[in-house]
């Protein structure tokens, strides 16, 4: 028997909601303007899955496909690059709107600012984004990866000229290692999307960088004649992406926000555990955090994001690995007529969750609580493409992490 999806509705007490302003619309506008200054920038596609929506009994299903982002196969570069720009702007006493790609790659900038070393911990996508941005902007990058990290993800970071290692510790310990090294390095700074007491500014900038993706999606939905999504499904590791997406759409539709569903890997479900506890305090998950959803294998929540999520999320969902594998297969081999979305292990979990909620009466209570029906317009984010080719092939071709115990009858 496969492990069930676990879920809880949000019954936590509200806070003063101070962190919502991180994702104020003008902050996101600045981030999008910065990203737009890169010659490599283009808006990533929003896949309109009409066949899937009909199959699941929904009004619309829309998937933001981040496999096209800057040629890096994942969304993460949006956060790291914008945080770098804001850090440099602050060091120079300037506004981030001055930090265009042309200026940051100019001889004048090099003479004025010199070089910084950006340290980070990553399971792959974030580190690759930081390394790529540092490389493009003439800065240095040092990247630490947790044990079990894939060789292909390591190689992709090394190709960008970063100093990169795979350590014998988990992700959260790699974060501590990177922070300690940054402190001992002249012009060293840690660029991490998890926040803790005393380290909150840079994570807030990373979240604003992720806002570019949410802003594009909102615009693309309007082009599809969807004025607002009724539901937004977003995955979480430390919760920075989730906090950014929830914060942006709450600010965009202050009087009528969508219902938000946050999904985590069962092996690292710190937000879900916090929601189950119900007192509004974050929880931590320790250990090796073994899951195919490497990008979500984070056990310590971003405190800034947690505050946004506890105030605005409808449901928290803890997902076994089969959920992500099912989502990868559904997006990669879609209903006839729908576009193909090549989605990696951390990108496809939303599709797997949505399918389970709509197709399996085990989750009927959650379906009804979320009011998911034929009028619902659902937005989700495929945050990475095929970033680990061997794992991708094992799931899609070899049927790893099956969702059934016996052959199904033919339809």
From TrEMBL:
First-tier enzyme category under EC: lyase
InterPro entries: DiNH2opropionate_NH3_lyase, DiNH2propionate_NH3-lyase_sub, TrpB-like_PALP, TrpB-like_PALP_sf
Keyword vocabulary terms for this entry: Lyase, Pyridoxal phosphate
The EC number(s) this enzyme carries: 4.3.1.15
Pfam family, one: PALP
Cofactor (UniProt): pyridoxal 5'-phosphate
Tryptophan synthase beta chain-like PALP domain boundaries: 41-354
Xref: PANTHER family: DIAMINOPROPIONATE AMMONIA-LYASE (PTHR42937:SF1), PTHR42937
Protein name listed in UniProt: Diaminopropionate ammonia-lyase
Organism phylogeny: Bacteria, Bacillati, Bacillota, Clostridia, Eubacteriales
């Amino acid at each position: 028997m496969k492990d069930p999806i676990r879920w809880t509705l949000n019954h936590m007490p509200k806070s003063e909601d101070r962190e919502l302003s991180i994702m104020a619309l003008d902050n996101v506008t600045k981030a999008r303007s910065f990203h737009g200054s890169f010659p490599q920038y283009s808006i990533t596609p929003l896949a309109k899955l009409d066949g899937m929506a009909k199959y699941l009994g929904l009004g619309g299903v829309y998937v933001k496909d981040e496999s096209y982002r800057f040629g890096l196969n994942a969304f993460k570069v949006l956060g790291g690059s914008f945080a770098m720009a804001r850090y440099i702007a602050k060091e120079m006493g300037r506004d981030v709107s001055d930090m265009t790609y042309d200026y940051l790659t100019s001889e004048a900038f090099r003479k004025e600012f010199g070089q910084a070393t950006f340290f980070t911990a990553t399971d792959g996508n974030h580190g690759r984004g930081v390394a790529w941005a540092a490389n493009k902007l003439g800065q240095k990058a040092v990247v630490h990866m947790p044990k079990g990290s894939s060789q292909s993800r390591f190689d992709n970071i090394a190709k960008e000229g970063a100093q990169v290692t795979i350590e014998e510790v988990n992700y959260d310990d790699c974060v501590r290692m990177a922070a300690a090294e940054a402190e001992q390095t002249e012009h060293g700074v840690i660029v991490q999307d998890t926040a803790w007491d005393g380290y909150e500014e840079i994570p807030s900038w990373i979240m604003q960088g992720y806002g570019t993706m949410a802003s594009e999606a909102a615009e693309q939905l309007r082009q599809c004649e969807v004025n607002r999504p009724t539901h937004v499904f977003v995955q979480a590791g430390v919760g920075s992406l989730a906090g950014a997406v929830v914060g942006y759409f709450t600010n965009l539709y202050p009087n009528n926000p969508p219902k938000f569903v946050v999904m985590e890997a069962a092996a690292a479900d710190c937000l879900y555990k916090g929601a189950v506890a119900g007192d509004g305090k974050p929880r931590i998950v320790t250990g090796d955090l073994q899951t195919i959803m490497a990008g979500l294998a984070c056990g310590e929540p971003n405190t800034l994001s947690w505050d946004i999520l506890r105030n605005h999320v409808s449901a928290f969902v803890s997902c076994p690995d089969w959920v992500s594998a099912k989502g990868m297969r559904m997006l990669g081999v879609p209903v006839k007529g729908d576009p193909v979305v090549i989605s990696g292990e951390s990108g496809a979990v939303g599709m797997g969750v949505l399918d389970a909620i709509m197709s399996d009466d085990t989750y009927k209570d959650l379906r009804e609580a979320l009011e998911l029906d034929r009028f619902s317009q659902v937005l989700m984010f495929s945050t990475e493409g095929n970033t680990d080719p061997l794992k991708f092939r094992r799931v899609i071709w070899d049927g790893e992490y099956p969702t059934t115990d016996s052959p199904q009858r033919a339809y």
